[in-house]
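Pilot study result, target chain (371 residues):
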Amino acid sequence: MVSTGLADLHARLQAGAQQAGLAGFGVCRVEPFADTRTEMERRLTSGEAGRARFTYRDPHAATDIRQTYQWAERLVVGSVGYLPAAGDPGPPVSNTGRIARFATADHYAPLRSALVHLAGLLRSAGHRAEVLVDDNRLVDRAAAVRAGVAWWGKSTMALAPRFGPWLLLGSIVTDAPLPVADPMVRDCGTCTACIPACPTGALDTEGVLDATKCISYWAQTPGPIPPEVRSAWGDRFYGCDDCLDACPPGQRLAAGSSTPAGRVDLVDILETSDEALLEEFGHFYIPRRDPHYLRRNAVIALGHSGDSRAVPAVVDQLHSDAAFVRTQAAWALGRIGGPMARAALSDALRHESDPEALAEIERALYESEGS
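Predicted structure:
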């Protein structure tokens, strides 16, 4: 039985969540998320997790919060919707790139602020409380499902009524034995709209994601982009929203998010200093905080633009001190083609020492011969 004091505290937290603008609020127990751990370990074994880190660095800890916080009794889970605030990148524009809506700004900021406020209420009542937002110590989707804030979608995203997949999630670890919510009795039913929407076929009919085929995964992963993913990249600069755009529960909200946002000039990206790139896109997850990965993404998107006006900026990337950028720049020049691109590739062929970049230059020269 929950004491009157804990019930009152729960009511204050719920009211505080509403006042702070949270889209969802729930409380769940802290027992290990055993099914989630099993699936994570299966994906690591099968290779479907790729080189994913974050919660995959330690699935046991990420699915058992008491390995980090031995005193934990409950998880207080909150969510925010990031539409319409994230806007809409609109249709493709030559030499520009799309940013996935979750990353058009630091949309986690309102969530952090709300959860810090709720944690303050818990502490003022004499309880311990720690905020976890976008944190590798907890699989936040599993917590949200258990707390009744969302359900698992076939896209592997957490979905909620009215918001669909356009949610960001966070939790508070507390020692307060608050009353818990029931999980949401809902699922995707027969809907499979997200599966054929994926441009690389990363989702299967069982709702399993193969990260090694996912554009969002590769936009945040070190090294060169595999050819099969590169060929489906399109005008993306960071992330991919295709499975979210296709999700029926979120389409009404997406349709009303028409303020232009999330489109960047890719040539400007290539010509911007390291310091300025990290300042502008510091809220992205960028491997090793290395802006070369932003340039890598940009040259792939420029390769899809086919616009010869981008050639000088891409040619400059053949002289990058990162071999993976040179590799992708050669690929992009091969797609764009034209005399300037071929001349630059021929010159690079004489000076390149990295085997992978050299092979890509040779392929690009072959493919550009008819342009």
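One observation from the pilot: Residues 4-174 form one domain. A full batch analysis is planned for the follow-on phase.
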